[in-house]
């Protein structure tokens, strides 16, 4: 520990301690100066100075005294979560969302719109702008705009390098949105964003290394380790859905043949379902939809929840294949937790149990002895919570100074 602090400059040490106070209040809710001093190992005068700075920046507030068994009642402090918010946007293959989210990860406003099939980038951006404007974001103090989108994202240049399902290439999303909005903007792969969301608000609060696996239209992984997302040398880590599991398999939108996504994603399961039904296999999904051509992903899940044999078998097989794919990641990273998220959660245990079993069967036993395999508990809007967490992580990250953030520059309209 002393070796770590020896490397910090005076300014870095100040930032570290400011963020430590913030994190303690986020973790405990309300604390007195004495409690903050005890938990942080800082002197009370030092804590007092940091509290003043954080109060001046309207990040924390005094909430009155607490009763003690003797002596004066000390004042308590807490995060001022109603003052600063994040504007969050997610772009999926079929829809876009925009939301206002507070520092506790609570959604204040959310809007969603369906995208026309094969939407071009500029067309999709029109939908994004309309939803952002619907959020009436000028009424809030916005820390920044966070964007989550699938595929490979260059976070430094603000480029959507390769979102396979959208078929876009090197789209300058940050540059385009800055033409309309003055907020600082962060963009990242949606799985990375959700991994950060799980770190702050979900199932990854404990432990050192977690993998958040998102399985719906595609399959991707967000890897959180050493207090940050692991993105790889060129921002392309976590593309587990494009692992080849069958050499002569169908061609994936990424250009390779036999990718995991072609067997275990929602569209691939749906294709297999309709193909089997068309060849004469019975399924409740057809009865629910009315005919084969009308079957959609919600019909698959509805049929599975009614114990439809074909639907359950296809979802179960997808869980097994995905678990096998993830086992390689477990053998390499040895994480504390695997957190499953995405549309396949709608099938309840039909996907999850085979997924978990395959992980335990195909991973090195020493790597699964203390491994927890969990379902995300962030709900259906976990994607926008993840996008907002790009900025929340910045706020609580010990390496990012308060001066570099958009804390005081934005005025809130009454």
UniProtKB/TrEMBL annotation:
HTH marR-type domain ranges (all copies): 15-61
Name the record gives this protein: NBD/HSP70 family sugar kinase
Function field: Transcriptional repressor of xylose-utilizing enzymes.
Coiled-coil ranges (or none): none
Keyword Transmembrane helix in record: no
Similarity section: Belongs to the ROK (NagC/XylR) family.
Alphabetical keyword list: Carbohydrate metabolism, Kinase, Transferase, Xylose metabolism
Molecular function per GO: kinase activity
Kinase found in the keyword field: yes
């Amino acid at each position: 520990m002393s070796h770590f602090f020896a490397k910090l400059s005076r300014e870095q040490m100040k930032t570290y301690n400011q963020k430590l106070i913030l994190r303690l209040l986020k973790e405990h809710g309300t604390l007195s100066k004495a409690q903050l001093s005890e938990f942080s190992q800082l002197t009370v005068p030092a804590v007092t100075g940091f509290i003043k700075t954080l109060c001046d920046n309207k990040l924390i507030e005094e909430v009155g005294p607490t009763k003690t068994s003797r002596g004066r009642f000390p004042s308590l402090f807490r995060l001022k979560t109603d003052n600063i918010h994040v504007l969050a946007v997610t772009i999926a293959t079929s829809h876009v969302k925009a939301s206002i989210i507070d520092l506790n990860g609570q959604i204040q406003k959310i809007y969603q719109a369906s995208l026309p099939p094969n939407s071009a980038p500029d067309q999709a951006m029109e939908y994004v702008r309309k939803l952002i404007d619907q959020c009436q974001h000028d009424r809030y103090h916005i820390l920044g705009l966070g964007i989550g989108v699938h595929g490979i994202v260059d976070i430094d240049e603000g480029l959507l390098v390769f979102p396979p399902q959208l078929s876009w290439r090197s789209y300058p999303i940050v540059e385009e949105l800055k033409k309309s909005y003055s907020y600082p903007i962060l963009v990242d792969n949606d799985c990375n964003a959700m991994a950060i969301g799980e770190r702050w608000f979900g199932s990854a609060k404990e432990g050192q290394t977690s993998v958040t696996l998102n399985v719906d239209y595609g399959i991707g992984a967000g890897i959180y380790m050493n207090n940050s997302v692991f993105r790889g040398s060129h921002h392309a880590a976590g593309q587990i859905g494009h692992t080849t599991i069958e050499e002569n398999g169908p061609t994936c939108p990424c250009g390779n043949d036999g990718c995991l996504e072609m067997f275990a994603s929602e569209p691939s399961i749906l294709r297999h379902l309709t193909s089997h039904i068309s060849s004469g296999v019975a399924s409740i999904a057809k009865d629910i939809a009315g005919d084969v051509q009308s079957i959609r992903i919600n019909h698959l899940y509805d049929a599975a929840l009614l114990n439809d044999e074909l639907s359950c078998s296809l979802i179960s097989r997808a869980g097994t294949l995905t678990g096998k794919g993830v086992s390689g990641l477990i053998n390499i990273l040895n994480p504390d937790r695997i957190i499953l998220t995405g549309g396949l959660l709608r099938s309840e245990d039909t996907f999850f149990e085979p997924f978990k079993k395959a992980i335990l069967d195909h991973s090195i036993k020493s790597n699964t002895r203390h491994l927890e395999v969990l379902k995300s508990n962030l709900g259906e809007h976990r994607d926008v919570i993840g996008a907002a967490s790009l900025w929340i992580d910045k706020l609580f990250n010990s390496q990012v100074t308060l001066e570099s953030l958009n804390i005081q520059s934005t005025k809130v309209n009454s």
